[in-house]
Structures are given as C-alpha cells and as structure tokens.
Design a protein that fits this description.
2 helices; 2 strands; 14% strand
Length: 85
C-alpha cells in the first residue's frame, strides 16, 4: 500500500529511543505530501511492549508493560475499527 492509498488508517507509536526523531519527521513529511488521512498517537514516556503484560519476563531495557497505556491504545484501535470497518 502506498502512502496515497492510506485513508482512515491511524498509526500508533510510542516514544522510544529505538526510533530517532528524524524517522518520525520523514514519515510525517511523506504522509502529508501524499495527502494521506493519517494520525500518529504518541504515548510519552512509554517503552516498547507497553501492551504485553509478559514484558516484565524479558528483563530487557526498553521493554516495559504499562496497563494504562495498554487500555488507551486498545481504545484507540477500537475507535479506528469503528471508523474504517
């Protein structure tokens, strides 16, 4: 799927040290230039695997479960499905 074919798709990403801000800026520029209907939700201060309760078992930096953020992201995904399905 190319950027110009995206409509109603929301892209979710938590603020991670794994993704440099330049990556985000390039993505935003590409989506805007393509006139895509897009949205990015940033979960400030949250790490990778915030939706995985088993993340604690990995004992790795940057892999952390967060119950509140999991609930928020689940709600956002349900809202997306309601909109596009």
């Amino acid at each position: 799927m190319s950027a110009h074919e995206i409509r109603g798709m929301r892209l979710y990403r938590q603020l991670l040290r794994l993704y440099p801000s330049a990556f985000r800026r390039r993505f935003e520029t590409e989506m805007t230039a393509a006139k895509a209907d897009w949205q990015m939700i940033l979960y400030g201060g949250k790490e990778h695997s915030f939706t995985n309760p088993a993340a604690v078992n990995y004992n790795m930096p940057g892999i952390v479960y967060d119950e509140l953020t999991e609930k928020r992201s689940w709600r956002a995904m349900l809202d997306l499905f309601e909109e596009v399905l």
